[in-house]
Specification:
Layout (H helix, E strand, L loop, with lengths): L6 E9 L5 E5 L4 E2 L3 H7 L5 E4 L1 H13 L3 H11 L5 E6 L8 H12 L13 H4 L3 E4 L2 E4 L3 H10 L6 E5 L14 E2 L9 E3 L3 E3 L4 E2 L3 E3 L3 E3 L2 E2 L4 E2 L3 E3 L4 E2 L12 E2 L4 E2 L4 E2 L8 E2 L4 E2 L4 E5 L5 E6 L9 E5 L6 E5 L3 H8 L4
Parallel strand pairs: 9-11, 10-13, 11-14, 12-15, 13-16, 14-17, 16-19, 17-20, 18-21, 20-22, 21-23, 22-26, 24-27
Antiparallel strand pairs: 1-2, 1-3, 1-5, 4-5, 6-7, 6-8, 24-25, 26-27
Helix pairs in contact: 2-3
């Protein structure tokens, strides 16, 4: 069934002294909204700032259409002095405004879409760099005046970070997750139920986990980690743009990336990377069969996405080796199937 819109949300946020949006909070974003909801919203532009009278009228229209949750949100927004906005995305196109960008980041963190499941082209250029403080988002150019004002009244304005992305937990805390250090998970991360992010774990936007899983390493932008996988302390996954290529890095289910290890290729299921070993696409890998005999030497990119592999470094000669639970003939045939 084709819907009249891709997504929509009613939110409230922060603007600078020029009226430019810095950030937007959407309490209940909707993916694939019903035609009735889109009609009741009655908005033609993608991004529309709403005044109190408009919100009250919108509350009545939504209630009349049976959209109780969205009507309640409109009522809550009408009671606030914070700027309110309605965003409706007719299609999954690249965001063109800050509210549109924030709606898409909310879709990810609310688990309504998975990483790579929505168009984020040009996101960095849209988002402003913001001072995230104890008084909320502040425009960088307005920060000194706000710091002085706080000191004059005997307070200290705490600046937790200066970044384009806020921490996810200030906007949404997905059900069934543990996050030991909330500043290390950006809005736009997708955390599946059962995921634990330890103190040194990090999850970027448009990246995440299927869950359950234990994350003590870095999940870079664009990387998705399968269920039952464990990323050891200090390990890293190379982001899609990190090497200048177009390979989407991912980790399959039931994988282990050891402490201080890393990958620049996608892993299949049940793979292990030895602690301290970083495997990039161009890494020369000696493939061993079940008896420990060398079959051939290949670049790691030829092993991308294969399951049941163990990557290790030979402690005697320093060579990177790959063991497999499959026979040498089977693996060799798979590697060269498309030559």
């Amino acid at each position: 069934m084709k819907h009249a819109a891709y997504a929509l949300g009613l939110g409230l946020g922060t603007r600078n002294s020029n009226g430019d949006w810095l950030e937007v909070f959407f309490p209940n974003p909707v993916l694939s909204p019903s035609d009735e909801l889109v009609t009741a919203l009655g908005i033609s532009d993608n991004t529309t700032t709403l005044e109190r009278e408009q919100l009250l009228a919108l509350e009545a229209a939504l209630a009349g259409a049976g959209e109780t949750e969205q009507a309640q949100i409109a009522a809550h927004l009408a009671s606030s002095h914070a700027p309110a906005v309605a965003v409706i995305l007719r299609e999954d196109a690249a965001p063109t405004t800050v509210p549109e960008a924030y709606l898409k980041l909310h879709l990810l963190s609310h688990r309504l879409v998975k990483p790579h499941g929505t168009n984020l082209q040009g996101l960095f250029a849209i988002l402003p760099n913001v001072a995230w403080t104890s008084e909320g988002a502040i425009d960088i150019s307005e920060l000194p005046a706000r710091q002085l004002a706080a000191r004059l009244r005997g307070d200290t304005l705490e600046v937790s970070c200066v970044d384009k992305f806020p921490k996810m937990t200030n906007y949404v805390v997905p059900k069934g997750v543990r996050i030991a250090h909330t500043a290390r998970v950006r809005l736009g991360a997708y955390l599946g139920e059962g995921t634990t992010i330890m103190h040194e774990g990090f999850v970027n936007f448009n990246a995440g986990t299927d869950g359950p899983g234990m994350i003590e390493g870095r999940i870079s932008a664009g990387v998705m980690v399968g269920s039952g996988s464990d990323l050891g302390g200090g390990c890293s996954t190379m982001g899609t743009l990190s090497g200048g290529g177009n390979i989407i890095i991912s980790v399959g289910s039931e994988c282990l990336i050891g402490a201080n290890a890393g990958i620049g290729i996608p892993l299949g299921d049940r793979c292990t990377v030895e602690a301290g070993l970083f495997v990039t696409a161009g890494t020369k890998v000696v493939v061993l069969d079940a008896t420990g005999q060398a079959v051939e030497t290949v670049k790691a990119r030829e092993l991308a996405g294969k399951s049941g592999l163990l990557f290790r470094r030979n402690s005697a000669n320093g060579a990177v080796e790959c063991l497999t639970n499959r026979s040498a003939i089977e693996l060799n045939a798979e590697l060269h199937a498309h030559n």
